[in-house]
Amino acid sequence: MLELDKTKVDFLVTSSMIPEVETFIQEGQPKIAKIAQQLVDKQIRKIYFVGCGSSKAVGSAAKYLIDKYSTFIANVHTGWDFVDHTPRALGSDSAVVVISHSGTTEEVVKALRLANEAGAVTISVVNQGKGNPLGEEAQYVIDYNAHAMWECHLLALYFLALEWIRNAEPSKEVESILADIPKLPGVLADHIDSFEAKALEMAKSVSGWKGFYTVAAGPLLSLAYKEGVITNMEFMWGHGAVIESGEFRHGPLEIVEPGVPFVFLIGTDASRHITERALRFVNKYKGESLVFDYKELSGGLHADLAPMVMFVPLEWFSYYFAVARDHNPDDRRYYGVVEY
Fold it and tell me: 245 near 217, Cβ under 8 Å?
């Protein structure tokens, strides 16, 4: 197994995560609530989330909330999809949220400029509010100034979606989610301290895998995409794909056989039954599986906070899966190395 100083691995869970999350919850929510109120005041009814990689995944998480708890219309696009196939409905009655940690992602910058030209309300989610196009060209900027990109991206979009709904179409469920968010740092801290050793053992047990299929549904689909595709391929050099649990019967079940690997993310929301059904099938026909169950990891938090809470256990596993296969997660062959 590769020997690494994990404190020097860039993508890993960091010691600064908890204070960064705490600060963003305290300082970010009031700012974002004011932006959400502007959406209500401007009578915005549809919103487009634009990002790439994990930034697109968090857009999917926001769409999930908006679809579930409001009558607003939400859509998610990759940068090039939005630029090359711009929605005809885009205009002054819509909002566009562009997401990029650096604020310089080529196609996301193009999407922002296109949205500005169309007269849409534009909102950037970016690390630094100055020195990059997203921070300087959007009408509203949500800057988080932190290394904990996944958590801050999710928090930014959760606050935006939930405060928008709260102001326009109040519900007890939305209030319940918002009430649980301040408890998040404590649960994350517990997983940072307690899950590392378990993740190491899990990774050792499957070190022969070349990758895995990640199976999830509902609120966990965003995390499944981030960890099962982005992290698995880019950082771990593992082969992989994400399978929505409800689609497991329609194609994926035919590849189940001894030696085929699956990672299951099981939530406590209404879709739990269908992910459990896929897991039972894989176990029955001797596929290989690892399970991350929100029932065991939630710390009592709301079912829809699963992609925030389960990130730490998944990230610990990802790190040790790479290390167990003698790969440094920070190594790149192509990204940022050769022209694309």
Answer: yes
CA 116 to chain centre: 26
Amino acid at 95: A
> Residue 272: which H helix or E strand, with range?
helix 272-284
Q: Is the pTM of this model over 0.85?
A: yes
Q: Which residue has the tokens 């958590």?
A: 151
Tell me how far apart the alpha carbons of residues 186 and 10 are, in angstroms, rounded to a whole number. 23
Measure Cα distances from 319 to 98, 197, 226, 290 in Å.
28, 12, 14, 15
Q: How many residues does the chain have?
A: 340
Structure confidence by residue, pLDDT tens digits, 38-86: 999 999 999 999 999 999 999 999 999 999 999 999 999 999 999 999 9
Which helix (H) or strand (E) segment is 173 a member of? Answer: helix 172-180
Cβ proximity of 200 and 320 under 8 Å:
yes
Which residues fall within 8 angstroms of residue 34, CB to CB, at 6 or more apart?
none
